[in-house]
Sequence to fold (214 residues):
Amino acid sequence: MSSDDVSHDASASEQGAGETRSVNTGRRYFLIGATSAVAGVGVVGAAVPFISYWEPSAKARAAGAPVKIDISKLVPGELLSPIQAWRGKPIFVLYRDEATVASLTEQPHDLADPDSNNETMQPEYAKNPTRSTRPEIGVYVGLCTHLGCSPKYVVTENFDDTKQGGFFCPCHGSKFDLAGRVGAGYPAPDNLPVPPHRWESDTVIVIGEEGGAA
Ligand code: FES
Fold:
C-alpha cells in the first residue's frame, strides 16, 4: 500500500510543524473492554455532533491542556476504551498482565530501539523495558511514527515472538510490541511516543503534566 492509500478521516486530528495528521477511529481503532473515562475528557471521535458545545474545551485541549484519565475499570489485557484524546492525539492506555510484563522485561526480541535510546520518544521516567511508570500500565500516543496512522491493538500469540500480541499499523505493516517498541525493519522509524504524564492517584493519570510515578 502506498502512502497515497492512507486515508485521513477527520475523527481525530493534530496540526503542527506544517503538517496535519488525522486518524480514522472508526476503521482503525480496535476497541475492547469496558468504558472508563473522566467526565469532560476528550474522547477521540465522539464529540463531532456536539462540536459547538465542545468547542471551548476542544480548543483548550488543542492548546495542550492536561487530560485526566480514569483507569479504575481497566483490567489486565485490556486497552482503555473509548480511547481518550490529548492535543488531538489518541492516547492508548494498556493494562498488561503479568506474563506480558515478564515478556517485555525478560525476552528482548528484534526491535529497532529496544532500550528506548531515542530520548525524544519518551520521558526519562519511561525509559525502561516496559516504557512506563508502572510495569503493568502502558501509556502511549497511538499514532504510528511512520505516517501517523493509528495502530490496532492485537491480541494473538502469533503476533511476534513474544507471543503476547502488540500494536499493528495496517497502513504499511509496522508492528509494535506491548511497550510500544517498533520491530526492526518496519517502515516506522521509532517507538510509539510516551506522552508526559503523572499519576494523580492509583487510578487517575494526568496526561500532559510531567511527574511520572505517583
Ligand atoms: S503509517 Fe505506515 S506503517 Fe504505520
Summary: Residues 1-55 form one domain. Confidence is low (pLDDT under 50) at residues 1-41, 45-56. The first helix runs from residue 25 to 28. The chain has three helices and eleven strands.
